Amino acid sequence: MLPYVSNQRLRLSPSRVSEFENCPQLYKYRVIDQLPQPPSLDAERGTLVHTILHDLFENPAAQRTPQSAIDLLPSRWRAQMQAKPELIEMVTNEKEWLDRASSLLQTYFTLEDPTAFEPTHREIHLENDLSPEIYLHGYVDRLDVAPTGEVRIVDYKTGKAPKPGWEEKALFQLRVYALLYLKTHAVVPRLLQLIYLGDAKTVKSTPTVSDLESTEKTLRRIAKDIEESVEKDYWPPKPSRLCDWCYFKSICPAHNS
Ligand code: SF4
After folding, report:
1. Looking at the predicted structure, is the pLDDT value of residue 1 above 60?
2. CATH code for the structural domain at 4-11+120-229
3. Is 243 in the pocket of ligand 1 (CB under 6 A)?
4. What is the pLDDT of residue 2?
5. Is the CB of 252 inside a 6 Å radius of any atom of ligand 1?
């Protein structure tokens, strides 16, 4: 069965977990049925900006300037189009597209000074067997270890920060990474930081051991729910405002009864 890795361990990641929590029917379309989906322009813009923020740190500290980030845009965009030629037709106004990416990159420099630190890891893959039945993994945009040993986990978002009261939900992804880091390095990260380039805001949190224990409990509960759905082949649709962006709306039973 596809949500599993070898020897029937359930494969969990923050994105799979939130997909199932948001709508089990959507999880089924994507993970169980593996239905193809066309690229989303928002996601592709996010990929482009992430690539540049990754590659920016290849430069010596003094050269990590807004202009050097913007200078990376043409070549990284060309590479992305070569990898996904369908983007050429999807992006109808290339200038507007690149201007938007450029504006997001400039916003980054209002929130962090990349000349002032050296990242320890970029796009690091963390993984752990949470139990013999659950394999948990995720890709962290950036992980910085200070000379004093304190760890900061950073994730870039090209959208806007959550409204007040919704920060905890947004932080779940970083708590999963923090839990993975704790399991693999026996260290509780000191700071979790979400950087929202869409509206120049950051959301920060200092996780405690008890936060991470509670994250682990939530993951185990969701793993059990997924196992039950697989056993019963029961994937209830959960309509929400996300349906307006859902590619599968035209075949979803919630909208076609
Ligand atoms: S349209 Fe809505 S309810 Fe249906 S699969 Fe998509 S997100 Fe779920």
Report:
1. no
2. 3.90.320.10
3. yes
4. 55
5. yes
The identity of residue 123, as a single letter, is: E
66-83 and 94-111 helices, crossing angle to 10°: 140
Map out the domains of the chain as residue ranges.
4-11+120-229, 41-111
* Mean residue pLDDT across the chain: 95
> What pTM does this model have?
0.94
Which band of pLDDT confidence, cut at 50, 70 and 90, is reported for residue 257?
A: confident
Q: SS3 sequence, the chain?
A: CCCEEHHHEEEECHHHHHHHHHCHHHHHHHHHCCCCCCCCHHHHHHHHHHHHHHHHCCCCHHHCCHHHHHHHHHHHHHHHHHHCCHHHHHCCCHHHHHHHHHHHHHHHHHHCCCCCCCCCEEEEEEEEEEECCEEEEEEEEEEEECCCCCEEEEEEECCCCCCCCCHHHHHHHHHHHHHHHHHHHCCCCCEEEEEECCCCEEEEECCCHHHHHHHHHHHHHHHHHHHHHHHHCCCCCCCCHHHHHCCCHHHCHHHCC
Taking the centre of ligand 1 as the mean of its atom positions, its distance from the CA of residue 21, in whole angstroms, is 12
pLDDT digits (tens, 9 = 90+) for 95-128: 999 999 999 999 999 999 999 999 999 999 999 9
Res 225 pLDDT > 80: yes
Residue 244 CA to ligand 1 center (angstroms) comes to 8
| For the chain, percent of residues with pLDDT exceeding 90 | 92
